[in-house]
Write a structure and sequence with these properties.
This protein has helices at about 1-5, 10-40, 55-60, 65-75, 80-95, 100-130, 135-150, 155-170, 185-195, 215-245. With about 250 residues, the chain is mainly alpha-helical. It has one domain (about 1-245).
């Protein structure tokens, strides 16, 4: 929190430039995520929760190298979206609301989500660490990896609800002639994203159907909505930073 407070004391030019650096890092790391996603054959299509222990063990034995590559890549780069989310936090702090509580809660939710994501990667790695072990143990680790990867969506839902509320409360700021930081439709989009992702919390309770971890809702809708949110917010943030730079006299 002290870092965020100190950021307000930076020169205006430096503040905008550092946000732009963090923002433009996002596309590069998204490309890395996509490569790691397709390198792990267990995502395309996602492994079924109905597979037997022997089938799961065989998958890890046959794809050990690819699983390790994919999960090590995620371990190294998974946290690299945090700077992108911090740009959202900084922009939320520019909003007209007297309290920055939404921004600080968004920050906490983003960091919590990154931590859970790292835990899921570790479970996948442990399952692939000794592919010759008892198939029942590999099945257990696989279940833990998938449920931790898909089901804990509370932080993501919280992020989107907080952003939506912040947009609705933002009536404009004094440094932008009462122009809101984000268009109001961003609030609607953020809330809709939260609604689309929330059902994935049930992935730990279903082994078949759209709510299972490989299902249409829990896997494809959840991950698709999250990816769409990041892409859309990239352009929203780029426009917001441009407006900030113009209003603060940094660029024409």
């Amino acid at each position: 929190m002290q870092i965020l407070a100190e950021a307000e004391d930076l020169p205006k030019t430096a503040n905008v430039k550092t946000q732009l650096v963090a923002l433009w890092a996002a596309p590069a790391f998204l490309l890395i995520y996509v490569v790691a996603f397709f390198a792990f054959r267990g995502f395309t299509p996602p492994l079924s929760p109905e597979l037997s222990a022997e089938q799961v063990a065989a998958f890890y034995a046959e794809n050990t190298a690819a699983i390790r590559f994919s999960m090590v890549t995620y371990d190294l780069c998974g946290v690299m979206l945090i700077p992108f989310f911090m740009v959202i936090v900084v922009q939320m702090k520019r909003m007209a609301t007297q309290s920055h509580v939404f921004a600080y809660c968004f920050l906490t939710a983003a960091v919590s989500g990154a931590t859970i994501f790292a835990l899921a990667n570790i479970f996948f790695l442990v399952a692939a660490f000794r592919p010759e072990r008892n198939p029942e143990l590999i099945l257990l680790l696989n279940d833990m990896a998938w449920i931790v990867f898909i089901a804990p969506v509370g932080m993501i839902v919280g992020q989107n609800l907080l952003l939506g509320l912040a947009v609705y409360f933002d009536t404009g700021t004094s440094d932008t002639a009462h122009e809101p930081v984000f268009p109001r439709w961003v609030g609607h989009f953020s809330i809709a994203t939260a609604v689309a992702i929330a059902p994935a919390a049930l992935a730990g309770a279903f082994r078949t159907g759209p709510l299972a971890w490989d299902g249409l809702i829990s896997f494809w809708l959840r991950n698709g909505a999250y990816a769409a949110f990041v892409v859309v917010m990239f352009f929203v943030l780029r426009a917001a930073l441009h407006r900030q730079a113009v209003k603060e006299g940094i660029t024409a």
